[in-house]
Amino acid sequence: AFVERVKSIKETTARQRLEKKLKKLERIWRKTSGSKISSIQIITDASTLESSLASNTITAAIETAPELKKWMKQKGLFLQDLFEVLVQHNIFSTDDFFMILDETWVEIKREVRVLRAQELKSNDAKARLENLLSKFEDEWRALEGKKAKKQLYDDEKAVPTPTHTIQQAAFNDLAEKGKELKAWMRTKEVWNVTLFQELVAADVCTPASLKDLKQKEYEEVVRKVKVIRYEQFKDAHSQAVMDKLLVKFGKLYEKSKK
User: Is-contact 113 120, C-beta < 8 A?
Assistant: First the structure.
């Protein structure tokens, strides 16, 4: 007991010395920068650190995918764990649903179940989660025009078929190839997955390469996007929104030529 007490005192003294040095360093920094004094919280244990990291992860997810969060809430499908798993799979809005393949969905569900393990002690809780996941699946399939399919393989023993593996590889390659372009499109508020796909297909993978797109090629890209999106969304409002986005993108294209 005496040894443990001495060890405890040493650890406390060391921590106090560290805090004193940090406060002194803060005062010097604030005096130099002119910043006002604020409190500094020092994380002293693993549980606090874990909680802090989890909080940062949630905040980052919300800031990265506000459109997805808004859509999920509107549909009554918002679940924090599902939201975070989707973001980790690069699903930031409904425009990214094209990246959800059957085996991708199996993996998403598995990850959500793992995260919710502590809350799934009762059959009612499990039923509620499965019901929400089922409704979410119905929604993304409807948006992508994909018919509900029979289970292709067991959730617990996911064995993707060669075709699915090839499709997933193609999507991953597309996302990686046009990563810089995608970030730019989001920043300029002209993000649309169909437009993104057609631009990458036309070898426009970065904002800088947009200026190399010839006028005829640009017109062909716009034509293809309209054909695909008008087929998917036949109501006047959705088409008007698409037209507005393409007009905005057109101005950016013209600007890149100057």
Answer: yes
- Separation in Å, CA 139 to CA 74, 77, 145: 12, 10, 10
Given pLDDT bands bounded at 50, 70 and 90, which one contains residue 122?
confident
Per DSSP (E only), the strands in the chain are none
- What is the model's pLDDT at position 255? 92
The residue whose two tokens read 């003294």 is: 13
* Pairwise CA distance, residues 257 & 195, whole Å: 19
CB 209 within 8 A of CB 183: no
* Whole-number Å distance between alpha carbons of 147 and 246: 29
Q: Residue 44: what pLDDT?
A: 43
Task: Say how far apart CA 191 and CA 93 lie, in whole Å.
Answer: 10
Q: Looking at per-residue confidence, does 146 or 12 come out higher?
A: 146
What is the C-alpha to C-alpha distance for residues 177 and 207, in angstroms, rounded to an integer? 12
In contact, 78 and 69? CB cutoff 8 Å: yes
Give residue-wise pLDDT tens across range 16-44: 666 666 666 666 666 666 655 544 444 44
Phi and psi at residue 41, to the nearest 5°: -100, 125
Rg over alpha carbons for the chain, rounded to the nearest Å, is 25
Tell me the C-alpha to C-alpha distance, in Å, between residue 217 and each of 145, 224, 240, 253. Answer: 28, 11, 23, 12
> Based on the number of CB atoms within 10 Å of its own CB, is 220 exposed (0-12), middle (13-18) or buried (19 or more)?
middle
Report the pLDDT averaged over residues 88-93. Answer: 82
